[in-house]
Amino acid sequence: MSPAEIKGTGVRLRAYRPDDAEAVAAGYDDPLSHRFLPPLPSPFTLAHAERFLSEGVAAIFAEGGAVYAIADPETDDLLGGIGFDKVVPSRGQAEIGYWVGPWARGRGVATAAVRALSAHALGAGLQRLELLTHWDNPASMRVALAAGFHREGVRRQALPNRAGGRDDLIAFARLASDPAVPTPRVLPDLPGGELTDGVVILRPLGPGDQRFLLELRGLPDVWRTSVPAQPPTAEQIRERCTRAAAHWLEGTRADLVIIESATGAPAGEIGLFYQEPPTGQGMIGYSMLPAFRGRGFATRAAQLLSLWAFAETDIARLIAGALPTNLGSQRVLEKAGFRREAYLKSRLPGPDGTRQDDVQFVLLAEDLLKGEGPRLDG
């Protein structure tokens, strides 16, 4: 049986009341709620809120779930809502979900509420809680990680959307045996949100970079050396930009835009790919718009990203590659401190079914950290 109240850090989970209807309507009618909770009616009216409070709450409890209002412990004002449903008794599992009103966001409300309800549910007999979130909802992913949930994978086309299609969802889970501590991050956030040496700035790739990235990735000398070696579609670029934060939080890659500090113009991109944590090996790759080539920007970006990777992650070894004919890229790597290590024949898929050789360079942590590297000003 669920308790009438659950106390958390800075929040109180209590039963919904009829006088919560206006706040529920305002929270559910918010654009983010419409985006990430597509089953909700749109617009979500006061009548919908009143029906949810009079019928929906009781239905969730009747099916074995639980639902609570998230309230301010001092004022009792409604901050959001949280609950779990889709209970499978034979598996001892359920799915947790929440919403926070726009007037209460950015205060750690969701994290505190998820921690409190998860601790109660997993301490009362459930063995597994799942939390599902959209690819383009990094705020919810941060809540999951901060509340001790682990990313498990992608559920393809798991949720119908408002456009008539279906969306993939990222699945996080927390077990009763998991420690009640935040899940460690493999790739932390940048200090102050960016890296800079005063000449270039590196900042995370985001949804607003789609036009720039489509221009850059559409250049023949860029896509011909990419994998796959073909021009990207606008949809592929959209996915890359909107999912970049999710990949960073997952710890598999960090995509960044290279900005000219003096003008604020995007000059190129650079990425850190970390798919071998057991060996401590990562890989970097970069590309520049033609107008910014030959000015040392790629070298500076490679130095900044390498120093951050060695100082802030468990990466001990970075590799990078260039085509044998791309002497400019090879010079960039050498100036950034990388050393030529191998010539890999037919390593990369080329255009039209061809194969391309790859010259591999390597940079070790001790090689960079013992030298005079750039200063990171966050």
TrEMBL record:
Positions of the N-acetyltransferase domain: 11-176, 200-366
InterPro entries per record: Acyl_CoA_acyltransferase, GNAT_dom, Ribosomal_N-acetyltransferase
EC number: 2.3.-.-
Top-level EC class: transferase
Gene3D superfamilies: 3.40.630.30
Keywords linked to the UniProt accession: Acyltransferase, Transferase
Entries under CDD domains matching the protein: NAT_SF
Organism: Paractinoplanes rhizophilus
Coiled coil: none
Pfam family, one: Acetyltransf_3
Highest taxon listed in the record's lineage: Bacteria
Molecular-function GO terms, alphabetical: acyltransferase activity
Name used for this protein in its record: GNAT family N-acetyltransferase
